[in-house]
Amino acid sequence: MAPVSPRTEGASRTRLKAARLSPRDVLHVGSAGLRSRPVRVVLSALGIAIGIATMIAVVGISASSQAQLMRQLDALGTNMLVAKPGEGMFSGQEVKLPKDAPGMVGRIDGVQEVGATGDLKQSVRRTEKIPKDETGGIAVKAATERLLDVLRGKVAAGTWLNAANGRYPSVVLGHVAAERLGVTEPGQQVWIGDRYFTVVGVLGPMPLAPEIERSALVGWAAAQQLLSFDGHPTAVYERSTDASVRQVQKLLAPTVDPRNPQNVDVSDPSAALQAKAATEGALSTLLLGLGGIALLVGGVGVANTMIISVLERRHEIGLRRSLGATRGQIRIQFVAESLMLSGLGGLAGVGLGAAATGVYASSGGLPWVVPLWAVGGGFGATLVIGTVAGLYPAVRAARLSPTLALHAA
Amino acid sequence: MSTVVRLSGVTKEYAGGVRALDGVDLTIGRGELLAIAGPSGSGKSTLLHIVGTLDRPSAGTVEIAGFDVASLTDRRLSALRSQHIGFVFQAFHLVPGVSARDNVAEGLLYSGLPRARRRALAADALARVGLADRMKHRPHELSGGQKQRVAIARAVVGEPALLLADEPTGALDSASGEAVMELLHDLNREGATIAVITHDTEIAAGLPRQVRIRDGRVVADTARGKVAA
């Protein structure tokens, strides 16, 4: 080291200017207090972590459920409409759709596929020994061949109705119907009307048409020949191009029944799924509020820790002032400490919340979605809380008289 | 001989009418080694604070390293401390859990020097006080005398115009205390201006100049041959 020499006269006339702390130095002085008291850091960051984790998990879990529903909607499409007979002008009046309704609907611009079902006044039973009234909630319906394509349904086992088996006493069961009847695989027989029908297929789940899941479906022609079906459809399902959905919706009722369009109810089964997806978000507001309160309590904890930290470190504050720290530099040291404290809590909270969402998603078979805005928002909130919580203790620290700070007991 | 400290008519009154300093005149020239001595309650701590610019006088003028303290903002006073004044305290005030070298480097934290330079200068300063082999030791691994030497290294690492030592031997046994005083003598021989504040008349007697304070007044100053009124 060069010998300690007094400054030259020239040097003492230079302008006095307080040097700035580099970001790294701010980090250094801000973290010094944290490093010396790790247990306290963990405990006070825990409050923030719990708050953030709650918020992230609430948002993440509902986003994951929503993503699952949207994924389902994507697979099923939102371009399917159903026309059903509505209520008649006079109550109790039975309304029927015209026999040629499916053919007419098929001619609307944009319609790609049409299928139909017709309700039969029959019940399906395992044997003729079971009383007729025990339907088990299973409807018997005539179905057109195109129905499965329109619904984008899948056959879980066996085959769908086709031109060959549709004319004979064969039946396809929805998966709920099959379960209730105790039919596990194609080839078994069930009793419909006055004879046994052979089960040729069992369908998979059909979220867009739950009524089909609970039905036994018979070919259109077989229904007319064997089960005295009158040929009037009770539901016409159509799928159009995405662009023409609104147009088709307007035309559907007048096309199905040009004379009495008011007798036709047109519905969009995907709307129900969309509504469900929307409510996934709404239900979580309360929990989000709870997370917010936890966060607030965490912030109070950080403020408390900082005030104690300032009281305990009066000597250090006095020393730093004697070493040439400005009030601003003392202030920034304690705000940085508070920011780091709550930032640590925020990071831990984001990790915990994302992990909780991951556990929930993987146990429920959902996609794992943690929205970036939630991560950013949660972390941003901790930084705001850290600043607010640290500001008052920092201002107190900066206002401490250096002489009192140095000589405090 | 140029002056480092010039106090004239400095009075300090605390709320409640306690007059800690009463019209103190004091001039310290460059390269001096002096004792500011007096019993407890004499006002020597207040004098230290005012000379160290940690406190402002109620009346009178204070000039440190050529700057009139009254005209400086808190920011510029802080800069004055970081560039021109080094402090050594009775209780050392080292940062716990941090190595000796980093403790010394802390003395340059507010100087604006880059970190690598601060650490290099800190190593030099530690070597200068005879602790080259204690760089990585933390305060609790050092003896009292070593701690005080680390604190002295921290105070002189920025080559201040003035070194203020407040009872530097107060917490040490006599052997360590003598070693610390020896170090201060060495630093002074190399050109440092040092004021030692002490109540210990023996220590004061060992220094070239003694300023005696009682009841807030300078009652004796060997430089001026002033005798108690």
UniProtKB/TrEMBL annotation, chain B:
Residues 5-229 form the ABC transporter domain. GO terms for molecular function: ATP binding. Signal peptide: none annotated. Keywords: ATP-binding, Nucleotide-binding, Transport. SUPFAM superfamilies: P-loop containing nucleoside triphosphate hydrolases (SSF52540). PROSITE patterns: ABC_TRANSPORTER_1, ABC_TRANSPORTER_2. Gene3D superfamilies: P-loop containing nucleotide triphosphate hydrolases (3.40.50.300). This is ABC transporter ATP-binding protein.
